[in-house]
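Reading is simple: each integer encodes one residue's backbone shape. The lines below illustrate:
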Amino acid sequence: MTSTSADTADYTSTKAYTVHGFSTADAVTVAIGGSTLATITAATMTANAYGHGATATTQVPDLASGAYSISATGSISGASATGTYTLTYKPAVQLAGGATAQTSGGVLTQTTITVNSGASGTTTILRTGTGSGTAGSSTGPYGVHGLAASTSYQVTWGIGAGATVLTTFTTNAVGGISGGGIQFAVGSGNSGYHILDIRLASTGADVIFGGTTAGSGAFSSQGWVSGNSCTTSNGQICGYFGDTVFSLTASITPSPSVGAVGTAVSLTGSGLTPSTTYYAWVKSSGASTSGVTYTTAGTYVTTFTSTATGTIPTGTASTFNFPTAPAKASGENATSYTIYVDTSTTGTTNSATFVLQAAASLSPTSTTPGSSVTVTGSGLDAGQTYNVVLRLGASNLVVVAGMTANGVGAATASFTVPASTAPGSYQILLTRTSDGKRALVSPPTLTVSASATGGLTAQTLTSSGAPAEAAVNGQATVSQTFTNTASSSLSVYMWVSVQNAAGQTVGVFLGSATVTAGGSSTIAAALFNLPSGTYTATTFVTTTSGIVVSSTSSTSSFSL
């Protein structure tokens, strides 16, 4: 038996073998490593210089690396004869899409690993695929083949003695990886292409680095980083590296990752090209604003120079206020925006996600019934109309105004606090008029305090000190001095609520006075019919019509 092909091959190779010296009645079986390559029937036998024979061309099977004897066995009336030819089997990497499939960047498309791009720590799986088509074709079995059988190997991040070992595995009987493959996390480094090497665990020797893809021939000067088609002009030999390549992207993290328009966002990250100028810019991920860039500084939100180790520097250069942009209001769900970090103002190499929430602010945040309040919204759904709602209770929602968001989701409206609003704290909601959905995850709160006729408030009388107990002509009294800040005199009552040592209210007493505009007066209330004991008293002042015009004060403990 002779071979018309080279004596080395991988599992995608096809080999031509000529058998001779057999009878025309023979059926000749050609086999390697116990696997049948072809069967040559008597009908194909022809006379040649060596007797009767035939030539068979077939693809070699998927086997472990090493030297194999190819046998040709014929049978005539139960007899057989065997000739041998030695074939050396080599390791190979098969790429999905065929050995010549390339992306626009020139890197061979492959599924040797399940994930071939991502940030440091990305999990991927190295495997031996099965495919559905012929080995070496665009649908053939991809992955690592032809390693030594039942042997321990290392997967390394990079090449050479200093390469980081990511994982180890042991091959199966045919030099492949059994089952679903070997899972591991990729290493760190600068963004760009990194080689995942396979080497013998026992010696550290490379077994696939610098090799070629299965069936592709010798390495070409165009290699795996070439974007050009391989030609045979100028003596080129067409072929591609069989290295498994991972495209490492930088790791970018915004802090916080959720916020409103104007939120100060700080960027941290690693894996960038060292000492290089980068730009950060923002783009909506939502369909309603897809393709629109929102910036505050021309074409980017901030720019910085990476450190000597490829990290984002700390400080003001890596911090920006999130720009004015609409966030689609949908059941209090917000819009995701992508923060791109690249060496150009339109590049998308590295990115992170920021979730923009609609927000609103109030001016003022504290007021009285009948007063005007201004609501300013941001991050709303551009062009949508909203109701401004005063939430007086769980089911008591009062629409007090309306607003329409402009093209970047901003809106302003003013409303008057209803005169009947009781003192308390209330949320101000924004609800979309088209479907009633709430736009604010964190609604602002309006504090409403009591108001009175003539502009009197609970601060009209101010005290110059705490109330105190003293005996006046043998009668226990509580007194306190007040100043009238109103523009007219006030006739008032000072209410004194007395509590015993157990905290129980045992008496309420009144003192009265007229306090001139801008003047001060000490008001005293006599305490009657209290037994001996220890007490405290609480005071406040009202007009004769019951309007509270002072804050509440308390005495120190006193004895009677």
About this structure: Residues 461-559 form a domain with the Immunoglobulin-like fold (CATH 2.60.40.10).
